[in-house]
UniProtKB/TrEMBL annotation:
GO terms for biological process: phosphorelay signal transduction system. The keyword ATP-binding applies. Residues 11-132 form the Response regulatory domain. InterPro entries: CheY-like_superfamily, HATPase_C_sf, Sig_transdc_His_kinase_HWE, Sig_transdc_resp-reg_receiver. Keywords: ATP-binding, Coiled coil, Kinase, Nucleotide-binding, Phosphoprotein, Transferase. One of its GO terms (molecular function) is ATP binding. This is histidine kinase. Residues 191-225 form a coiled coil. It comes from Methylobacterium brachythecii. SUPFAM superfamilies: CheY-like. The keyword Coiled coil applies. It is an enzyme of class 2 (transferase). Its EC number is 2.7.13.3. Gene3D superfamilies: 3.40.50.2300, Histidine kinase-like ATPase, C-terminal domain.
Length: 363
């Protein structure tokens, strides 16, 4: 049994206001197991149509001279899948061919079947059941159309996701190519400068190996962060890890959390590698008493940007003298680092130990 509002309703709406036609029709339908609703007038019929129905049973005299404009508009506005069936009970000889009024009703109602009176009850039931079977096929068509619509919507979503994925893949490939080129350029520069400034092959091999390992550790930090950048504290920790003693007393690290972009992370990591290597050879890490203080601050400047102040300060090592010429390490730190950071870098060879000061915007 169906109820008003059921999207698959098979209710039969009956409009037969004269005599007992409506009651008799409803009783016949009930005996056949079909649900029906008697409509008192055209307004009630229109409400029934708006609530969804299986079909309409109407007598000719109920609508022959009535204003069917509202009903006509409802029928014209049916969705593509719907073609509501009407059965019209006419008088003897009331077919479309011989009855102009019936022809008008056929034009208004559209999907219309005429049944001339008198008729056998089984004929009426058979006709209504056939109309309801047609209505069921319409519901099935609606369901298939809805499935197609949902399938089309899902396909559009999938195509859109595929497009985004393809664009993202192209972006990743471009980014990978860019990073590989930058890495190769860095390696090439390190190799050329190391070989040019080394006194012998053994020294060159050792220096080159240490610098490439430093670059690798910096890449490891960025890889864990999906190359979105890295925290400065982690960059420092990884860079000085090979030079720490077991007790952890040779380095004093202090500073707030500062997020660096990939380029700044690599630049600072390489600078720390060079500073630590020099400290092991000539500075505070070359004896048992020296220490290195690493500290930084981050301050807000105009426009809401952050400005980084970073300091490497060696203490307790052998006395430091100003070098006669700048080696590759100094040039790498002062020139390349300043360029990569878009800031300033200063290395001071103070008697108490080497001091490296860095100032740069955090972007």
């Amino acid at each position: 049994m169906t109820v008003p509002g059921n999207p698959n309703s098979e209710r039969v709406l009956i409009l037969a206001p004269l005599g007992r036609d409506a009651v008799l029709a409803a009783n016949l339908l009930g005996e056949a197991g079909l649900r029906s609703v008697i409509c008192e007038d055209l307004s009630a019929l229109l409400r029934g149509l708006e609530e969804i129905a299986g079909m309409v049973l109407v007598t000719e005299e109920a609508v022959r001279t009535a204003d069917l404009a509202e009903i006509s508009r409802w029928i014209a506005s049916q969705p593509a899948w719907s073609d509501l069936p009407f059965v019209v009970l006419t008088g003897h000889g009331g077919g479309v061919e011989r009855n102009p009024a019936a022809a008008r009703l056929a034009e208004v109602f559209g999907n219309t079947t005429f049944l001339e009176r008198p008729f056998h009850p089984t004929t009426l039931i058979s006709m209504i059941q056939a109309a309801l079977r047609g209505r069921r096929r319409q519901y099935e068509a609606r369901s298939r159309l809805e499935d197609l619509r949902l399938g089309e919507a899902r396909l559009k979503v999938m195509l859109a996701a595929e497009k985004v994925a393809a664009e993202h893949q192209r972006l990743l490939i471009d980014e990978l190519n860019h990073r590989v080129k930058n890495t190769l350029a860095t390696v090439q520069s390190i190799a050329m400068q190391t070989l040019r400034n080394a006194d012998d092959t053994e020294q060159a091999n050792e220096a080159l190996e240490q610098r490439l390992l430093g670059l690798s550790r910096a890449h490891d930090v960025l890889t864990r962060e999906n190359w979105d950048g890295a925290d400065l504290h982690e960059v420092v920790t990884q860079a000085i890890a090979p030079f720490r003693d077991r007790a952890g007393r040779r380095f004093q690290v202090e500073g707030p959390s500062v997020r660096l972009n990939p380029r700044m992370s690599l630049a600072i990591a390489m600078a720390l590698q060079e500073l630590a290597t020099n400290a092991v050879k000539y500075g505070a890490l070359s004896n048992a008493d020296g220490v290195v203080a690493i500290a930084w601050t981050s301050e807000a400047v105009s426009g809401g940007d952050q400005h980084l102040r970073f300091c490497w300060h060696e203490q307790g090592g052998p006395p430091v003298a100003q070098p006669k010429r700048r080696g590759f390490s100094s040039r790498l730190i002062e020139r390349s680092l300043a360029r990569d950071l878009d800031g300033s870098v200063e290395i001071a060879f103070e008697p108490s130990g080497v001091v490296c000061r860095i100032e740069a915007p955090v972007t």
